[in-house]
């Protein structure tokens, strides 16, 4: 995982070069937010799913970078005073703290649109139909019925009581949607069969939930130093989470079960799926 993260860091550095001229500050803020570290989980998933279908790495790396741009935009906007109002992200001052609110809003906007510019570029795939399918899936998962919709429900959750079904749906949108796209991207580029796509969707479903349960556990059990952001926020806001609804022990057992189950969906793939099989265990044992 470390090697992939390094390769992605280098690719992001190339794809987001410093700019000159009046807009240089915007590019600087985009680079600050994106190059500040991060586990690069979603890019890893794009590369690992593309490997199943022997998609050339130059192509999958472009989609991986685009997706990391969208993920980074979501973090920049989520940290703004009008949302989570956070000062720390990935162990560093959040983008609006380092620059200012307007610059952070614009950097997020520009990262989101840049993702579509990257994916729709012929260097991502020679076939325009494949590029159109990638753009469509990315928009669907990032938008109102995916991540942004999940964020809306999450904001409303502070004043509503959600049960486990509602929390699961919310998290499948807010966090699960980009994870779903990451895994689907390889299948689209590799022109996977219907059965292969279904298997990968099932994998992404279980992995996404396991990831979110661990995120909730880290909010309760982790330290600010480990996690690189403020902890204990969900409890303070009185938000229903997997941990508040299930308790720490059941939440941990559930994450373990989902991680085991995620790997089982990949039976139809040979040893090329090894990275995907290993990932759920990395995800549930992470400390940040
Ligand atoms: C503001 C449009 C908009 C959406 C925000 C994803 C999201 C929706 C907000 C992020 C807040 C949050 C803590 C969500 C929980 C799970 C999550 C996405 C954590 C951050 O992802 P990691 O752990 O982060 O992969 P790194 O820093 O490693 O990239």
Secondary structure elements and pairings:
Layout lengths: L1 H14 L8 H11 L6 H12 L4 H22 L9 E2 L2 E2 L1 H4 L2 H20 L7 H15 L4 H10 L7 H11 L1 H14 L4 H28 L2 H4 L5 H4 L5 H5 L1 H17 L9 H12 L3
Antiparallel strand pairs: 1-2
Bound molecules: geranylgeranyl diphosphate.
Geranylgeranyl diphosphate binds next to helix 4 and helix 8.
Strand order of the largest sheet: 1-2
Return the CATH architecture: Orthogonal Bundle
Average pLDDT reading: 94
CATH fold node name: Farnesyl Diphosphate Synthase
CATH superfamily: Farnesyl Diphosphate Synthase
Q: How many strands appear in the DSSP assignment?
A: 2
Give the DSSP E fraction (strand runs of 2 or more residues).
Answer: under 5%
């Amino acid at each position: 995982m470390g090697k992939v993260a390094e390769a992605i860091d280098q690719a992001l550095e190339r794809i987001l070069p410093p700019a000159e001229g009046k807009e240089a500050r915007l590019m600087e803020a985009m680079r600050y937010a994106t190059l500040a570290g991060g586990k690069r989980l979603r890019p890893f998933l794009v590369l690992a799913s593309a490997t199943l279908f022997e998609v050339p790495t130059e192509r999958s790396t472009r989609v991986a970078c685009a997706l990391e741009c969208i993920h980074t935009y979501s973090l920049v906007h989520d940290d703004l005073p009008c949302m989570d109002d956070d000062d720390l992200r990935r162990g560093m001052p959040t983008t609006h703290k380092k620059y200012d609110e307007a610059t952070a809003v614009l950097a997020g906007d520009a990262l989101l649109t840049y993702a579509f510019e990257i994916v729709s570029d012929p260097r991502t795939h020679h076939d325009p139909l494949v590029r159109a399918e990638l753009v469509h899936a990315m928009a669907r998962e990032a938008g109102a019925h995916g991540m942004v919709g999940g964020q809306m429900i999450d904001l409303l959750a502070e004043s509503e009581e959600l049960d486990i079904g509602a929390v699961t749906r919310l998290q499948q949108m807010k966090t699960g949607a980009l994870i779903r796209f990451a895994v689907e991207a390889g299948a689209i580029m590799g022109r996977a069969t219907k059965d292969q796509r279904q298997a990968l969707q099932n994998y992404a479903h279980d992995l996404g939930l396991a990831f979110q349960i661990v995120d909730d556990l880290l909010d309760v059990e982790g330290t600010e130093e480990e996690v690189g952001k403020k902890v204990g926020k969900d409890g303070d806001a009185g938000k229903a989470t997997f941990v508040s609804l299930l308790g720490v022990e059941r939440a941990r057992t559930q994450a373990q079960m989902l991680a085991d189950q995620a790997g089982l969906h990949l039976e139809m793939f040979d040893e090329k799926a090894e990275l995907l099989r290993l990932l759920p265990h990395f995800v549930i044992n992470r400390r940040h």
